Amino acid sequence: MQIDPICGKRLEAEAGAPTAEYKKRRYYFCSDRCQKLFEQRTERSRMSHLAKVGALLSNGKVRWGLA
Ligand SMILES: [Zn+2]
């Protein structure tokens, strides 16, 4: 039994059901639409994570530059 992380529907593990892998976990979806929404969300959180990492690195540079 799997739970669709987008709409919360309970799913029987079905061959050919849409799935996505994120942070080494596999997620199952009731439809392509939920899979796409999930991918959009994970993409957005990945981008904001990269932005934070980038901000930390540039802060570090500034700090080192001043020191
Ligand atoms: Zn769904």
Kindly report the spatial arrangement of strands forming the biggest sheet: 1-2
Annotation, overall tally of beta strands: 4
List of distinct ligands in this structure: zinc ion
Secondary structural class = alpha+beta
**Percentage beta strand:** 15-25%
Low-confidence stretches: none
Helix percent reads 40-55%
Count of domain modules: 1
Radius of gyration: 18 Å
Please, what is the average pLDDT?
83
Describe this structure as you would to a colleague.
This protein has 67 residues and is an alpha+beta fold. The chain has one domain (2-66). Helix content is 52%, strand content 18%. The chain contains 1 helix and 4 strands; from the N terminus they run E-E-E-E-H. The protein has one helix spanning 32-66, and strands at 2-3, 10-11, 19-22, 25-28. A two-stranded antiparallel sheet has the order 1-2. A two-stranded antiparallel sheet has the order 3-4. Strand 3 (19-22) and strand 4 (25-28) form a beta hairpin. The longest helix has 35 residues, at 32-66. The radius of gyration is 18 Å and the shape is elongated. The termini are far apart. The model has no long low-confidence stretch (mean pLDDT 83). The protein binds zinc ion. The site of zinc ion has 8 residues, from loops.
Task: Give the topology.
Elements: E1 2-3, E2 10-11, E3 19-22, E4 25-28, H1 32-66
Antiparallel strand pairs: 1-2, 3-4
This protein binds zinc ion (ZN).
State the main characteristics:
single chain; alpha+beta; two-stranded antiparallel sheet; 52% helix; elongated; binds zinc ion
Quick overview of this protein structure:
The chain is of the alpha+beta class and about 70 residues long. Helices cover about 50% and strands about 20% of the residues.
